[in-house]
Write a structure and sequence with these properties.
The chain has one domain: Gcn5-related N-acetyltransferase (GNAT) (Aminopeptidase), CATH 3.40.630.30. A hairpin with a 3-residue loop joins strand 3 and strand 4. It has three helices and five strands. By secondary structure, it is an alpha+beta fold. The two termini are 19 Å apart. The radius of gyration is 13 Å and the shape is globular.
Length: 107
């Protein structure tokens, strides 16, 4: 776990109506927009509301989402540059990336 301890207990919500994974901190959200098929989850864009800038919330939502994908047994398509960079920095997550992903060999 690399996330700050204050984020560990915050639940990850899969908001299917908004098509995003999200965590809420004091009424503010950090979230990742996703797309999903039977076998894959594509992470498209990571964002934290301005109030959460620099808090580590974006990294926390990424880590929680990667854990969710790992447990789901699906393969990850990390289109989001932030997620891609996170995996590059923490290569233990490469195991859940779909080998067919375009940038796989760059991770």
């Amino acid at each position: 776990m690399v996330m700050k301890t204050e984020f560990e207990s915050i639940p990850l919500v899969k908001n299917e109506s908004k098509k995003r994974f999200e965590i809420e901190i004091d009424g503010h959200f950090a979230f990742i927009n996703y797309g999903e098929t039977e076998n894959q989850i594509a992470l498209v864009h990571t964002e934290a509301e301005p109030e959460l800038a620099g808090t580590g919330a974006a990294g926390a939502v990424v880590e929680k989402t990667l854990q969710y994908i790992k447990e789901s047994g699906k393969k990850l398509l990390p289109f989001c540059p932030y997620v891609f960079a996170f995996i590059k920095k923490h290569p233990e997550w490469k195991a859940i990336v779909d080998e067919k992903f375009g940038g796989y060999d760059k991770l």
